[in-house]
Design brief:
By secondary structure, the protein is mainly beta. Helix content is 13%, strand content 41%. The chain is globular and about 35 Å long.
Length: 114
Amino acid sequence: MDKAFRAAGEADEAELTSAEQRRFERHEVRCPVRVRIGNRQYAAWLDNASDGGVKLSTACAIKPAERVILQIPDMPPLKGELRWVAEREAGVAFPLLDGYAPIGDWLKRRSTGS
């Protein structure tokens, strides 16, 4: 299996742990979302989020593909990259656009109720 899609726990010893690789603080979230991974669409839950990406969970197994479009309530669709898959969970990374992190803004709006 491609290195980018290895299941959790299969990393090479020389690789950094996921906590070491993270650059952004994670925030626990429980929010229903729609996600397109490759040519498949999933109803999913957003489990946690940061400025750099999200962790999703679905009711069915996720088929790995590189292209991801995530639809979060009250946000335009976000294009991202699938970073890992573990059966019914997945990590999606989003590029920062000139230092702008749309997920971070969404998290702030959620926490303030705006």
